[in-house]
Amino acid sequence: MTDLGLESGQTEELRNLHELKPSKIIDIRGAICPHPLNIIRDTIINLGDREILQAICDHEPTAKENAPRLCIRRSYPYRVIEKNGLWHIFIQKIEKTQPRLRVLNVSKVFKTNHGKVIALDNVNLTIQEGEFVCIVGPSGCGKSTLLNLTAGLDKPTQGEIWSNGNRVSGPGSERVVVFQEGALFPWLTVIDNVEFGLKLRKVAPEIRRTLALDYLKLVGLDEKFHNSFIHQLSGGMKQRVALARALVMEPAILLMDEPFAALDVYTRETLHEELQNIWIESHKTIVFVTHNVQEAVLLGDRVIVFARNPGRIKSEYEIDIARPRKIDHPEVFLNTKWITDDLKEELEGQLQYKTNEKEVVYG
Amino acid sequence: MSKRLIKLILFYLILVGLWQGLASLKLWPEYIFPTPVGVLKTLVTGFEDKTFIIGILISMKRLLIGYGISIVVGLCVGLLIGRIKTLDETVGSLVLGFQALPSICWLPIALLWFGLSESAMLAIVILGSLFSIIIGADTGVKNVPPIYIRAARTMGASGLQLYTKVIIPAALPSIISGFKQGWSFAWRSLMAAELLYVGLGLGHLLMMGRELNDMNLVIAVMIVIIIIGIVVDRLIFAKIESRVRERWGLV
User: Fold this and answer.
1) What contacts A65, CB < 8 A, 6 or more positions away?
2) Which residues of A touch B150 (CB under 8 A)?
3) pTM tops 0.80
4) What ipTM was estimated for this complex?
5) Is residue A4 over pLDDT 80?
6) Distance from CA of B195 to the nearest CA of A (A)
């Protein structure tokens, strides 16, 4: 028996994690698809607080890299022990007393001239502190609706949304949104735009200015543009300012609604890099809505795939690739392909359904 | 630019020359067809004995008071109509109806209510400019991109702050256009109203010229009225408007 010494070891209790009685033992030898890590993750979901999972695994990367990363990200105590060429992974689930965001049975119905449209149908989602969650899906799947509900700009027809332990009843600066484009105020200079929210909070002018300058520096906007007006900036610079304007509020959750969709490929890649670096430094909780699967894989710890008619969560992927991720990383490519196939299957299923309908009509 | 200026100067020189030439043919008596020299003389004496200056000041005073009231009332009403649907559907339609009415058509009512008095003049100025200002503010508010309001709300803006920090600045280009149009309507209707009212305004001077058969005075006052109109419109409002539009990125 070799102790690999892979552990989060903070307390005596954790040191002996493997000596405590696990409440569930799973044997994932030979698992390839789904990936062993996904099996572990799905098993943890059903565990109670402080319960311990023992996974017996023959996949070295899962034991040595993927599982530890998952645990570090969620602050779960863990210990990996090698025995007879197999790895025993012990993970203790610690339920955070307060997840950053909880979406509970949320439905949203819009009434239009053509009748009711179910934009969201019974969606449940929990996001922990420090998670970077990407939501992908075809247009009309309700991903932006969910973001609006979370921001408090709209009210759910059914269900509840809890942010930081408080029920969301309206917009608030602890949930700031970065919109696609055109949300900066043209009558203010760049720096005044960034200071806008702080001014509403009645932060003293000197502190306001210092904070704004700090965050403009963080997003990498050249100093010579600080006093420019918005229409004088390029698309990429505008989104940098928008990001700074949101980050300066130090929100508990940063909501991003396809923020880079209107940018050209090169600018988008640069901003992906910057956003990743910002996240690595700050571990902000981010919910990022996009229709670009590659973008989601590149940025997210978790990618949540939405389906439409009615809008709902179809599947969820844990993206376990070391950061900062590059677009040409093979695992980024693979994950992108899997998720794209998943989405395509969904869309084709609907197409099939429509063709059938036609057959009925014409037949 | 200077080429344009030369063309302009040449054009006016030729125009005045033709006028002088036509007048020196003496086809008509001078009380029907004045000479440029006569008009210039009247202008100079008018300013020297301060009749024109007093006329300008009196007209301006009426205009500024009436226009000021219009701005305050019109802005409030317009901002409310733009945001509150019920008000828009009720008061909004009334405003649109009144806007279609040429402002001088308010004169009979003003005369009946206030008599031939300062208050009637004021009423004409207010009614002449009010609806343009309301509509300018209303259109501006309605055309504020909803994303500005949404963005501001997620940053914690609410209630009155939304108005002062987002809606009014965002609607400013349209509000300024409303002010500009309101001003020119007020100016036109005041001149028309003053024709009827013995109150020393510019319109009254114009009418005095007619009563005295002094065509020089008529033309001189007309020139003063035109110049004031151009100065206010071109030099004040057009400047503000273009600066706002530039800053808002609308050009």
Assistant:
1) A320
2) 151, 153, 171, 177, 179, 183
3) no
4) 0.79
5) no
6) 43
